[in-house]
Amino acid sequence: MTESYLRPYVPLFVHMIVAAGLSAIIILLSTFVGNRRPSRAKQQAYECGILPTGDAREPFSVKFYLVAMLFILFDVEAIFFYPWAYVFRELRLFGFVEMLVYIAILLVGYLYLWKKGALDWNS
Q1: Domain-by-domain residue ranges, the chain?
Q2: Which of 86, 88, 107, 108 is nearest to 96 (CA)?
Q3: Distance between CA 8 and CA 29 in Å, rounded?
Q4: What's the average pLDDT block by block, 10 residues per block, for the chain (123 residues)?
């Protein structure tokens, strides 16, 4: 690898170093400056300001996990639109057709889940 090959990545490396350094500084400052006075109330579980009731090991419906997985799946798939939009002018018609096929595949998956009732909360 030559120096000219790595030159475009220098701003990215600087950004990563600054972000990691700032994160480390904030964590260290909160450790040294933070006030530590543990009490029974602070050690108790916190559920949106409401006193916890019931068992924490209560089983949930599979629907919750299914919807969470679907959200992650379609959220991650949406990330691929950003690099495509960045190079859209260079790809021209080929890139446009390629992205239409990609969207069609996502749409078929979404329609399949809809027809199977994975998104129906009334059942």
Answers
A1: 3-116
A2: 88
A3: 33
A4: 80 96 96 86 75 76 81 86 89 92 91 84 73
Is residue 95 a contact partner of residue 84, using CB atoms and an 8 Å limit? yes
Q: Which of 117, 110, 99 is nearest to 74 (CA)?
A: 110
Q: What integer pLDDT is reported at residue 2 of this predicted model?
A: 61
Name the residue type at position 16: M
Whole-angstrom distance, CA of residue 117 vs CA of residue 19: 43
* pTM for the predicted model, two decimal places: 0.49
SS3 (DSSP) at 69 = helix
CA distances from 118 to 10, 72, 107 (A): 45, 15, 15
How far apart, in whole angstroms, are the C-alpha atoms of residue 44 and residue 91? 56
- What residues form DSSP beta bridges with 50? 47
Domain at 3-116: CATH code: 1.20.58.1610
- Report how far Cα 94 is from the mean position of its chain's Cα atoms: 29
